[in-house]
């Protein structure tokens, strides 16, 4: 099971489900006949065979076990496993010519096609193509071409080193043509181990020892394929943090987005959103029909969740044409993603140059130019992308409430061809996008109204400057210095600030370190939000104790609340009850301080009794010590307990 675990995900696309299974193996057996090789479990029992996945989260979020204690998802997240070798791959199309590669990797003798997909996905490249001469070639884009494709993709060429693995696919009837595959939608892998060697000097080989110069920062092992969280944040970049986790008794390493966000298909962190356009009613001004193969390119293709660019919606109009999606209720639209068709020429691509996204509460199209009656979300780029890579348009006005999303050509692009779109995705507004279009000085608030998201701009409730030792969690912090190394521990962040002669340290979302002698803080938050690493949280601290999970706890509060003593004296006994929070690192120091207090109190009591009762035998005193773990009580709760609770 160690090699089968992939990760924890917010979103999967099931092809078949089973309401309840006993363990992971039972789910694997249920999906054994599916073409995909991944399974997903949720709620500790529900099994799904899946062909797509996205929106990865930290594995600790998958915290509900199956009946045999296997990790089987969470409340709204799925544990994903690889159940078997993959027998079907995400082929886009065939092409007459091998495409020029962005990256070429020499594969080991035991290579297989899925290994190439993982290499290209790890490099954050969108495509790979048929392997040749043991080489994996990754593409960021491909040239203008005539896509060659039939209805049936055959993945029947097995690998010489392992007959259960696939090494090549082709479209039926096009056996000799190279194939372009997509990496973004059907593939993912456990990110703690790489498929290729991360050597300092060069990138070209998989699983081969690196030269004496060693590994790139963030990698370790002889072949430099193991992620190392102790160096350079495990090469997880500036948005994610390298963490070590234990799943099903096996240790893994992950690159984790801050709490409240997910890792998307482009290896970026974002707030999770659902595509509100998928499979909603669609319409278009006219339908293009090919004279060559009598194929119609209707409106249903624009939001069918297929991105390959081979199937698409296309109009027949020369002017004022449009394609629309009815969201069926009013939404505040934040941004859209538009996927192009596969362009055979530059001119064909330019038909989408500076395309226009329009919005409205109602839509009753008529002949002529009706654009003046619609609101404008925004315009597409002047450099149009080929099929398979999205073009993103962020709406100009987040306050608009719209039911219809309409795409049109710009006035200049109609000269290059007719409007054609492979896929249109629509997403709601949020404060994580450009601060919700609020002013830089304002606070953005996410609000749910009539079951949809809206944003509201308001002034901050509290703004103040801090220039002395302090501890607190805030929604926003302006600091004087931002450190350029990410994923530091709280102790390491403090060292950075000390070296740069700053008294205050700031950790944003548990990943980004800043420093200052005079920091401005906005609206205080619960310390638990900072503890969780919430993407909107900022912890300001002067010094602290780190707990077993590495969180920075307030030293002054912890010392004050770690020892709570109440003394009740009578002629024969003194009871001293101590509450020890054992989860604090440095607890040996705390325990030592506690017992020093106990010894001092004992000596003082004995001296008083000896003075009072010189000729009498001293009575025995009892000291009672209660040790309470963090599972029973938190540091925050200790300071709030009444005296009666110590008795």
TrEMBL record:
Domain of life: Eukaryota
Gene3D superfamilies in the cross-refs: Galactose-binding domain-like
Organism encoding this protein: Helobdella robusta (Californian leech)
Membrane-spanning parts: 578-598
Annotated Basic and acidic residues bias: 611-625
Keywords in alphabetical order: Membrane, Transmembrane, Transmembrane helix
SUPFAM superfamilies the record matches: Galactose-binding domain-like
Gene Ontology terms for molecular function: transmembrane signaling receptor activity
GO cellular component, one term: plasma membrane
InterPro entries according to UniProt: Galactose-bd-like_sf, Kremen_rcpt
Lineage: Eukaryota, Metazoa, Spiralia, Lophotrochozoa, Annelida
GO biological process annotation, one example: signal transduction
Signal peptide, first to last residue: none
Chain positions covered by the region annotation Disordered: 605-628
Protein name (database record): Uncharacterized protein
PANTHER family in the record: KREMEN PROTEIN (PTHR24269), PROTEIN SLG1 (PTHR24269:SF16)
